[in-house]
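Take a minute with the sequence and fold tokens given here and flag any structure token that looks odd. Thanks in advance.
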Amino acid sequence: MLISNITFFMPSVLTLVGIPGLESVQCWIGIPFFAMYLIAMIGNSLLLTIIKSERSLHEPMYIFLSMLGITDITLATSIVPKMLGIFWFHMPHIYFDSCLLQMWLIHTFQCIESGILLAMALDCYVAICYPLRHAAIFTHQLVTQIGTVVTLRAAIIVAPCLILIKCRLKFYHTTVISHSYCEHMAIVKLAAENVQINKIYGLFVAFTVAGFDLTFITLSYIQIFTTVFHLPQKEGRLKALNTCIAHICVFLQLYLLSFFSFFTHRFGSRIPPYIHILFSSIYLLVPPFLNPLVYGIKTKQICSHVVKMLSS
């Protein structure tokens, strides 16, 4: 309902612009995004099929990898179909509640992905630093509990972002979101009210999740490298490093892209909006796209099963 020339009260529908400044070429930009989404779906589905069908892969590392695959599929699916609808079919409108749901799904599964990477780092740490105790520590029961805690942590910590928007913000300057998907700060910036609490809580979630996970992931890999470089045999060092190299690649590409997107969004006032939005979209799509490729190539057991499946 319009109550003034520039203020909307509880709009029922919002409009996603896509990539501001690049509207004329969005149909072409959609092609690589669709290709990345297709590869992500096929690659992660193949990983899940192999891990489920091969009993030898029913180990903590591969169970965490299957959790990561499910997370990547859900994260990519919550973004790309609507994005392609904007780029290709000129369908920019989205219900306000659907926009909030998309925002919650995106940020929740980002947190889940970070938590799974932490669990994989800890699993790698125990496997290399305490190999004889690994099976006793990382039981199937513990792996299930870790997956449950990671999921609940993400859902609970992100939920207040949705509640604060829904319950606190009633008036909006505009219903047009200059973005290709519903992101927390992009929605908050539409409001015509005091959004300080929303901004503070958004920063709290980002720094709490990323700070906690990043700290323990870094400490785990410091301990891993310390142990590896004290191994007497070169062959043993290479084997141990090869076990973790895929984790490190996935960890680096996720956090480097996320920090770039986070800081350009808040402090990159001189960076053109289309650069930020392109990178924030790529940042969400690159992990689902690269993860199955990295693990498929660098993990010998998975690679051999993929070759076996294709050859048969």
